Amino acid sequence: WHIQDPASQRLTWNKAPVNVLVIRKIRDESLVEPFKELCRFLVEEKQMMVYVERRVADDATLSKDEAFGSIRNQLCTFREGYDDISDCIDLIICLGGDGTLLYASSLFQGSVPPVMAFHLGSLGFLTPFKFESYRTEVAKVLEGNAAITLRSRLKVKVVKDIPSNLTQVLNEVVVDRGPSSYLSNVDLYLDGRLITSVQGDGVIVSTPTGSTAYAAAAGASMIHPNVPAIMVTPICPHSLSFRPIVVPAGVELMITLSPEARNNVWVSFDGRRRQEIQHGDCIKITTSCYPVPSICCHDLVYDWFESLAQCLHWNVRKRQARLADVSDSSDTES
C-alpha cells in the first residue's frame, strides 16, 4: 500500500481528441469575441469538431456577423435535456466563471471528459487559465502535456413515492427550510445509523471542491480537491456545539425529515433543480465514481493555493514589522 503522488495525475490521450465542447457564459456580451476567436482557432487551425449549445449558436450577435458565418455553419449544436452528447465529446473548454464548470458537469451524468476552464467571469476559483494565452495553453492540452485534478462528485438520489433519477453534484447538496419561518428539523444518517438531528436553517453536504463555496460561507474548513472526503456543514444551527464535520468518501449519508419537524424542507443540487422534501421522503448521498477531470494551469497544488489567495484573499493581513535590533527586543522583554 502506498499514497499516490498527486503529481502523477497527468492528462494522456489514447487517441488525438477530435470533438470539443465549448461552454460559454450566457448573457455576457463581453464573451462573444473570445468565443468567436476560440471557435475559429479550433475549427480552422486545429481541424476539430466544435459542439455548442443551440442558444449560443443562435445568438443574434453571432448571426449578424457575416465574417463568422462560415465557422458558425460548421458548429454542431445541442439542446440541454434533449440531445445526449456524453459519448462523443473528447474535451470541454469553458469560457466564463465557476458556474460554467458546474454547468458542464451537469451535462455529463456519467463519465466526464477533461475540462479546461478559462477565467472570464466574476470569481474564477475553478477557472485557472487566462484567455490571453489560449493558443499556447490549448495546444499544450491537445498534446497531452498537462496535470489534472480529479474533482470528486456526489451521487444523489431523492427517494419519493415516484421513481427518481440519480444526480451527479460537483459542489454541494443543500437542504434548507425554504419559505417557512420555522427551523428545519432533519435527521442525518451515516451508513444506516442515525448520527444527529439538524435543527437550524438547514445543512450542506459538499465535496472538497464545494468546501470553498457555500460551505466556506457557513463556517466550514476548506479541503483540497484531492482529499477523498465528504463535508457536512450545518446552516445557522440552533446549537453552540454543532461544528462542521468531515466523513470518509464512500460512506452513504441519508437525510430525512425528523418526526417532530413542523414544516417541509427543500433540496437543491449545485443551486439547481430545487424540490420540496416531505415526510416519508429521503435524500441518499454518496461519493460518485465519476469525477470531473479538471485540467490544471500549473499543478494541482499551486493552482489551489493561487485560487485561495487571489479569489478568497486567504490569510491576508498587514505584515508585522521586524524589530529594529536585538537590544530593542531585550528591553521589551525585561
Topology (SSEs and partners):
Elements: E1 19-24, H1 32-45, E2 49-53, H2 54-57, H3 60-64, H4 69-72, E3 76-78, E4 91-96, H5 98-107, E5 115-119, H6 134-142, E6 148-151, E7 154-159, E8 167-169, E9 172-176, E10 184-190, E11 193-200, E12 202-206, H7 214-217, E13 229-235, E14 245-248, E15 253-257, E16 265-269, E17 272-277, E18 282-287, E19 292-295, H8 300-312, H9 326-333
Parallel strand pairs: 1-2, 1-4, 2-3, 4-5
Antiparallel strand pairs: 6-19, 7-8, 7-18, 9-12, 9-16, 10-11, 10-15, 12-13, 13-14, 15-18, 16-17
Kindly list the characteristics that best describe this protein.
9 helices, alpha+beta, 19 strands, 2 domains, Tumour Suppressor Smad4, 334 residues, 21% helix, six-stranded antiparallel sheet, Rossmann fold, single chain
3D architecture notes:
By secondary structure, this protein is α+β, with helices and mostly antiparallel strands. The chain has two domains: 6-151 and 291-312, Rossmann fold (3-Layer(aba) Sandwich); 154-287, Probable inorganic polyphosphate/atp-NAD kinase, domain 2 (Tumour Suppressor Smad4), CATH 2.60.200. The chain contains nine helices and 19 strands. It has helices at 32-45, 54-57, 60-64, 69-72, 98-107, 134-142, 214-217, 300-312, 326-333, and strands at residues 19-24, 49-53, 76-78, 91-96, 115-119, 148-151, 154-159, 167-169, 172-176, 184-190, 193-200, 202-206, 229-235, 245-248, 253-257, 265-269, 272-277, 282-287, 292-295. A six-stranded antiparallel β-sheet has the order 8-7-18-15-10-11. A hairpin with a 7-residue loop joins strand 7 and strand 8. The longest helix is centred in the N-terminal third of the chain and has 14 residues, at 32-45. The radius of gyration is 23 Å and the shape is globular. The mean pLDDT is 91.
